[in-house]
Structure formats: structure tokens, C-alpha cells
Specification:
Strand content: 15-25%
Number of strands: 10
Largest sheet: 5 strands, mixed
Number of helices: 13
Order of helices and strands: HHHHEHEHEEEEHEHEHEHEHHH
Strand order of the largest sheet: 2-1-3-10-4
Distance between the termini: 70 Å
Shape: globular
């Protein structure tokens, strides 16, 4: 007799993902009583509690978490098997779920993902915008196939498929005093200028925080945000400066509204874009196809940024 009900595990997964039974019911278009009944029956079979109806802060019990790990491994295994079957049909069907940082969106969405969809019209893409910290959590929870991250923390449980160097530079208005220096600057030189910083849950925010600590300074931003678009507008409007990889503001640099100023800080100059997946989760064939496509068609993942950026800018 089977001890585990796949439908009950699906309900349990939805409760953890959406934060409550009622929200899970709405997302799954299922009556809340049906979910509660299925979970109660599963608890009776196992003889343990798998979710705490009275604890809104920690809904899933340790036993429930074990069931979720099993459920997600089964989902991943099923996806790989189906993917291999679909491969016999020439990648005419399948789904790829990925997370990307906001700074990559222009590079990925404008051409690369669009050309992939055109090449494989039967494959569906699910793209979540996520900072490095959130992307890592999505990988840990088996919610995505892989993540395109910037300055993410190294973890032994992840496999790095692609790694390229893209320094975290100073982004300034075109006529800003720092942009007129024509040299690499020390991070301590930014303290006297209006500054915007991105949230520390992102790779960029984490690197700036490390640079502050190693440089013995404390940066006090006029603006703090979790949006790359807001940072761009802050700089292009002339309000102040921020930190960002050059490729994130490539169009603004080409238009002559934003200037890129390199720093001499080792940690910032060696910042890396990475594509990560969970080691124990085999990538499906559509996911592998997308990974190869991104490596061949995006600037962030195709090669390192030029090492001598000042020289590069002078010859553009």
C-alpha cells in the first residue's frame, strides 16, 4: 500500500510556497477543505503531523519538510525523464524555469531569450527576476532549473556552469567630476558625492558592503532601492552616482548619458556573473539547450569584460 499521496504533497508544497492554505487553494483553484482533508489523510497514514495549522510563521513541520524534499526530487526526476523523451521529438516540448538578476534583463530578454523561443516554439520559459540571495533560495527549494547570478556566494551544493568577470564599476552622469578623472578611483573618493545603493540582498549590494568594510568607510546613500531601473534613473537624471556593471548600462553609455568609472578595488574589479544549478538536480534537456544558447548569445555570459576598461572606452 502506498504511503505517500502525490496530490497531498502537491498541496503541502503550495502551502509552503504561498504562505497559507487559503492562498494555496486560490493558486491551485481547489477548495480549501479538499486540501485540508488530503493533508489530514496523509498525516493519518504516516502517523505524524506534516503542517502546523496554528503556526503562521512556520507552517511546515520537520516531517513535512522531509516530504517536500522528496516531492521536489520526484518532480525534478520526472522532468528529466520527460525531457529525455521529448528529446526524441527534437526538443519540440518542455519547460525551463530560471531566475535572473534585474541587471541581466536587457542582455537576456531583448535578443537571447527571444531567439531561443523562436528556435524552440514548443518550449515554455518561466523567468523570475531575483537578486542573488533570492535566486540561491529558489535553487535550494528546487523551484527553478538554474539561476543567472551576479556576485553570488560560492556554495558547495551548487554547480557553476558558466563564470565570467564583470567588474562592479562606478556609474556616474556623463559630466560628473569623477568621470573627468580618466583613471581608476579609490572607493573612498565617492563619499563626498550623492550616492544611490541597491539592497544588500543583491550581489551588487553585497559587494559594496564588503568594499566598505575592507576600505574602512561607511557609505551613506541618498537613495536605497532594490531596483536597477531606479538606480539608472537616479544617475541619468544627474542626481548622483551608483555602482553597477558596465553592461547593465550599455545603452545609456552608447547614448552618452552615463559614464563608467573603474575602481582600483580588487573585490569590485573581480566581480563575476555565474550560472548556477543544484548539484543533485540533473538539468533537463531543454534547460541544457537554453544554457548553451545563453552562453553563445549573451554578452554577460559569452566572455569577460575587457580588463582595461579606460582604454576600451577611448577606442569605442
Amino acid at each position: 500500500m502506498k504511503q505517500l499521496n502525490p496530490r497531498a504533497l502537491e498541496f503541502l508544497n503550495a502551502i509552503e510556497r504561498y504562505g497559507s492554505l487559503r492562498k494555496a487553494a486560490v493558486k491551485l483553484n481547489v477548495d480549501p477543505s479538499a486540501i485540508s482533508r488530503a493533508l489530514s489523510q496523509q498525516e493519518e497514514k504516516l502517523g505524524v503531523s506534516i503542517w502546523d495549522r496554528a503556526n503562521n510563521n512556520n507552517l511546515i513541520t520537520p516531517s513535512g519538510q522531509e516530504l517536500l524534499h522528496y516531492f521536489r526530487r520526484m518532480q525534478a526526476s520526472e522532468a528529466v525523464t520527460i525531457s529525455k523523451i521529448h528529446d526524441l521529438l527534437g526538443l519540440r516540448a518542455g519547460e525551463v524555469r530560471l531566475a535572473i538578476g534585474e541587471g541581466f534583463i536587457t542582455d537576456l530578454i531583448s535578443t537571447s531569450l527571444q531567439s531561443f523561443l523562436n528556435q524552440y516554439p514548443g518550449i515554455q520559459l518561466s523567468v523570475q527576476m531575483a537578486g542573488a540571495k533570492e535566486a540561491i533560495q529558489l535553487l535550494e527549494d528546487d523551484q527553478i532549473d538554474f539561476a543567472v547570478t551576479y556576485a553570488s556566494v560560492n556554495q558547495p551544493s551548487f554547480l557553476c556552469h558558466i563564470e565570467t568577470i564583470h567588474p562592479l564599476d562606478i556609474i556616474a552622469p556623463i559630466h560628473h567630476p569623477l568621470s573627468q578623472l580618466k583613471r581608476k578611483i579609490d572607493i573612498r573618493e565617492v563619499v563626498n558625492f550623492p550616492l544611490a545603493l541597491i539592497d544588500q540582498s543583491t550581489g551588487m549590494g553585497r559587494l559594496v558592503n564588503i568594499a566598505e568594510e575592507t576600505g574602512g568607510i561607511s557609505l551613506v546613500p541618498r537613495l536605497r532601492t532594490n531596483s536597477v531601473a531606479v538606480l539608472k534613473n537616479f544617475v541619468s537624471s544627474g542626481a548622483g552616482i551608483t555602482f553597477m556593471p558596465r553592461l547593465t548600462v550599455q545603452s545609456e553609455v552608447n547614448e552618452g548619458t552615463i559614464a563608467v568609472v573603474e575602481t582600483n578595488h580588487d573585490i569590485l574589479s573581480q566581480a563575476k556573473a555565474r550560472v548556477l544549478s543544484k548539484k543533485e538536480r540533473e538539468l533537463t534537456l531543454p534547460a541544457k539547450a537554453l544554457l548553451t544558447h545563453l552562453q553563445n548569445s549573451t554578452q554577460f555570459l559569452n566572455h569577460d569584460a575587457p580588463q582595461d576598461m579606460l582604454s576600451f572606452l577611448q577606442h569605442e
